[in-house]
Amino acid sequence: MDHVRFTFKPFFPIRRCNNNTAVPQFPAAYDGVITVAATDLLDHKAPFSNYGESIAISAPGVNIISSYWGGYYSIASGTSFAAPMVAAEAALVMSLGINPDDVIRHSAISIDKHNPAYNSELGAGRIDLLRAVTVNSGHLPPRRHNVGVPE
């Protein structure tokens, strides 16, 4: 872990987990690492995503449109798509002088009601970039649960 801390300082290491288990995975479960679970469009846990105490936050990771070889685009799924979204959020809030370790969890949208079998096991919820960048502005948008998702 010393290598991870040294390599990423002053950045926050972000790790994905995709074994559909609650067993902590390393190096993702080390202290100081933001461990990411994947969700689908309706904020349900992705079937391949890990869950449990070591998960810090969730992010979209199912049916993500991404660039592909040869200048094409493709639709793919994986925690390897969710983790970069959290990394981007961390970079964005850091550029505003905000500590990502504090704001990412605080600004997340609760997804527990959409995941009763995984209640409190998908971290603080799904990332919300708008809330994250406005948390210190004094104009924090109200905490939402799911915008545009049927109840």
Give me the number of helical elements.
4
Tell me the distance between the termini: 42 Å
Can you give the mean pLDDT?
81
The rounded Rg comes to 15 Å
* Spans of at least 5 consecutive residues with low confidence: 1-13
Task: Write down the CATH class.
Answer: Alpha Beta
Strand content bin: 15-25%
Give the spatial strand order of the biggest sheet: 1-2-3
CATH architecture: 3-Layer(aba) Sandwich
What's the name of the CATH homologous superfamily? Peptidase S8/S53 domain
Q: Element order, helices and strands?
A: HEEEEEHHH
From the 3D structure, determine the CATH topology: Rossmann fold
Structure in words:
By secondary structure, this protein is α/β, with parallel strands linked by helices. It has one domain (2-129): Peptidase S8/S53 domain (Rossmann fold, 3-Layer(aba) Sandwich). It has helices at residues 2-8, 79-95, 100-106, 129-134, and strands at residues 14-16, 34-39, 57-60, 64-68, 72-76. Strands 1-2-3 form a three-stranded parallel beta sheet. Strands 4-5 form a two-stranded antiparallel ribbon. α2 crosses α3. Mean pLDDT is 81; it is low at 1-13.
Note the topology:
Elements: H1 2-8, E1 14-16, E2 34-39, E3 57-60, E4 64-68, E5 72-76, H2 79-95, H3 100-106, H4 129-134
Parallel strand pairs: 1-2, 2-3
Antiparallel strand pairs: 4-5
